[in-house]
Specification:
Four copies of one chain form a homotetramer. A four-stranded antiparallel β-sheet of chain A has the order 2-3-1-4, with helices on one face. The first copy, chain A, is an alpha+beta fold. Chain A has three helices and four strands; from the N terminus they run βαββαβα. In chain A, α1 runs antiparallel to α2.
Chain lengths: 102, 102, 102, 102
């Protein structure tokens, strides 16, 4: 069993630069101990659903402290089998690209 | 405090027609007792974050029973104040549209 | 052939209340003449992909005029057959719910 | 001016393993010449909106050829200023994490 989520969170009431808030969320994710990968538009986390959602909830709780409006998007891909998919999903696409011969 | 989510869930391994699965999720949402609204691309639910996520989790648990791959997307809009936003958000946009004089 | 999108757009640099901007986008969508439905977390539009994306592009162009940062999410469901799905998708789920006998 | 999108596309009628289809989209993105980054849950692309959407459209056109139902999600972050954000967004969060002293 494996869930990979892509997760994005930011305040809507703090102006153009939301970096410090994104970093606070990233810190919570890193400290969770789950496999994760920072990306330009969000962070991927792999684990059990209930645990990952616990991390997402902690991020929201943290931003709520000083943000009046917080927006959050999440996409989850759940598979019965598989593990380490946060790496393998990208690798298998890259492999297919190479097999194309270019 | 108010969270409105837009939530979409479907199996990836059941072919073109995923309606029975979407209906199973809709039934779980309806039975949750939360304010909700079915839409063409997902369902909106309003409530407390932890409770809403509990509903989402039950939907995922249900589909996992007989689906090998489940995809789920969620967007959440959290505001410090406000309630009944599942109705008021649309109404306030409609009001602005009318004030445009057309 | 039918594409239904769910589309959401708002500025990130205008504080908590983004309603006037959402209404500007809604006005552009309404004037496009496509089947659409306002929802609490976004607007659904049905049509041909290239045309719908033209509407989305006009919304972005409009908000860019006075917003320094704009966030936009979009989910699209493309089916080879089908039409009028913006209504039928919800109706078929409601029908399944009724058949459940509750 | 800079738009970064996160983009995900897959067929809903091809069973659990959608890798060959994702790879076809990735190939189209690579050949577009835009800055891009493959991730576990989607691909980020940076460029001008109209051009990026052209790439997304080509991916959809390609999958439509042999898929009866295609699902696509997209999030876009548009900023008036900035360039090379596909790298800098992650780097600035990593920098903030390091400054936390851990």
């Amino acid at each position: 069993m494996s869930v990979v989520i892509q997760f994005s969170i930011f305040p809507m009431d703090k102006g153009v630069s939301v970096n410090p808030y994104v970093a606070r969320a990233a810190k919570i994710i890193r400290e969770s101990g789950f496999r994760y990968e920072l990306g330009p538009m969000g962070t991927c986390i792999e684990g059990e659903w209930e645990e990952i959602i616990g991390v997402v909830t902690r991020c929201l709780e943290d931003l709520k402290k000083d943000c009046d409006r917080v927006y959050l998007t999440l996409a989850a891909d759940h598979r019965k089998d598989g593990n380490g998919r946060i790496q393998s999903k990208v690798k298998s696409v890259e492999r297919e690209l190479r097999q194309e011969g270019q």
